[in-house]
Amino acid sequence: MRLVLFHTGGTLMMRGDALQPLAPDVYTRDLVSELPILRKIADIESRILFNLDSSDLQPHHWVALAEAVHGALEAKGDDGAPRYGGVVVVHGTDTMAYTASALAFLLPGLDRAVILTGSQRPLADVRTDARANLVDACHLATMPIPEVGICFDSRLLRGCRATKLDAWGMTAFGSPSCAPLVELGVGVRVGPHVLASRPVAPFDGRIEPRVLVVRTFPGLDPSLLLGALGSGVRGLVIEAFGAGNVPRLENSLIPVIEAARAIDVPVVIASQSPRGVVELGRYEGGSAAARAGAIGAADMTPEAALTKLMITLGRAGDGGRVVAAREAFSASLAGEMD
Ligand code: ASP
């Protein structure tokens, strides 16, 4: 089988030591010659798309990556059969969950695996997680798993349910509201919830980056948000407390939600609790937010809520943003919510 591996940057190929911060290295070395054992898994074609610390990636990078992945899925070999059996993406961990979520929404039709991976330590280090993660990611990319997944520390997580939970340990990612798609132990255990194959759809790369995510906290001054609404925000994600609760007495956020609705800016409420479901009716603060027009994000991660809103707004016409967001958040598009 042939795989395509897209490089975007991240620690895996970085250079640095205790005296110098880790920084993107020049891509002078071919990954497969660094780790020849990968040849036992598949023929791997490497392409360098970017060479960035993932904290420098922007929405236009997600779109460029999604377009490259889409092109690879549509590519045919000389015999007319699909050229690649799967896709691997090497990516930094810092924003991998955002990119994976964006890819899941930008590639609604998927008939092969798209596996993102990276590492906490560079491949060149003696003590590194890069080798195991790369081998696992390439192996998973050959399997019939039509999902955008994050492969890290012997697990494959659904990309649009994953979040970076650890900046030190080797288990960098978790998906608190969704069981791993695959566990790699002595054997390979595939979960029953892996999505069915969907035909690859035409590519649509429209995205609206002018979306703001705000975490509620005691003391948040609503006038700061009203100011942001006046400066061109097209969508707002509020990371609310618990089940979707926001302040409604002192420093109430309800007038912000009403003001947003009046200018066709959708307000999506996610939770700052990594586990659990937003139920706007559970407490008075959430109920008032719903009455003012807020849209609950169920058990979506903030990363998934943000990218879904950006992509929905990219496709929505002026004057139809709230309606489009309400419709998009009423259904799961890529397994991002239960
Ligand atoms: N700062 C790095 C990045 O996200 C961290 C990593 O790769 O683990 O690109």
**What would you give as the CATH superfamily of the largest domain?**
L-asparaginase, N-terminal domain
Strand tally: 16
Low-confidence stretches: none
User: What is the total domain count?
Assistant: 2
Largest sheet at a glance? 8 strands, mixed
**How big a fraction of the residues is strand?**
15-25%
CATH class call of the largest domain: Alpha Beta
- Rounded to an integer in angstroms, the radius of gyration calculated over CA atoms is 21 Å
> Mean of the pLDDT scores?
95
CATH topology of the largest domain: Rossmann fold
Query: How is the largest sheet built, in terms of strand order?
Result: 4-1-5-6-7-8-11-12
- The number of helical segments is 9
Bound molecules: aspartic acid
* Class based on secondary structure composition and strand pairing: alpha/beta
Task: Provide the CATH architecture of the largest domain.
Answer: 3-Layer(aba) Sandwich
The separation of the N and C termini measures 34 Å
Helicity level, as a percent range? 25-40%
H/E series: EEEHEHEHEHEEEEEEEHEHEHEHH
Overall body shape: globular
